[in-house]
Amino acid sequence: MNENLFEAQYNLTKKTKLRKFYETNKTLIFSVVLILIIIIASVSFYSEAKEKKKILLADNYLSAKIYLENDNKNKAKNILKTIIFANDNTYSVLSLFLILNENLIVDQGELSNLFDHVIENNKFEREVKNLIIFKKALFQSNFVSELELLDTVKPLINTETVWKPHALLLLGDYFASKKEYLKAKEFYVQILSLKNLHKELYNQARSQLIF
């Protein structure tokens, strides 16, 4: 009997404390619950919007390829440029490379600016970013100055990346084409000093040195 009475008093005291806590912190509790609801709703909305954007960009990219097949290059170019400025780390890169491959833009300055925009406004895995930098250097090697080209490839030749030997080979070929053979030799020799070098790259560098 006494045990039941004690348990009833304990439960009553516990409920009273909970009620007091609720009454005292009612505003705070409602605020926390509301914030959690807003956060969950925002995350859900953002994920859905991101997925819709991805689908739209994919559709637009396919439309651009269809326009190219129908020889409507101007329409394709405009769509691809719009995709580039949508800042999607997949379709922005694909669109830029398609513009390059199809020679849709001939203005070298505009193409350089598109490369810079893609690199600066998207988050890539390290080697993907390095690939884009190498592509930019490869494109620029036909018209930029020595200092500009060296500045572009600096992130590749100063770090350990799979694109380092490619960048060194590009620089060697660049100086060889200008008949600056001592400078070219410097970069070819650097290639041969790299560890775990792909045999094809080794053979290319060695052939250029022999030449």
Strand/helix succession: HHHHHHHHHH
State the helix count.
10
Q: What's the overall geometry?
A: elongated
- Radius of gyration from the CA trace? 30 Å
**Strand-residue proportion:** under 5%
- Biggest sheet statistics: none
Mean pLDDT: 85
Residues in helices, as a percent range:
over 70%
Could you name the ranges where pLDDT drops below 50 across 5 or more consecutive residues? none
Number of strands: 0
How far from one another are the termini?
A: 106 Å
Gist of the model:
The protein has 211 residues and is mainly α. It contains ten helices and no strands.
Structure description:
This protein starts with a helix and ends with a helix. It has 211 residues and is an all-alpha fold. The longest helix is centred in the first third of the chain and has 44 residues. Helix content is 80%, strand content 0%. Helix 2 packs antiparallel against helix 3, helix 7 packs antiparallel against helix 8 and helix 8 packs antiparallel against helix 9. The mean pLDDT is 85.
List strands and helices in order, with pairings.
Elements: H1 2-24, H2 26-69, H3 73-84, H4 91-101, H5 108-120, H6 126-140, H7 146-157, H8 164-177, H9 181-192, H10 199-210
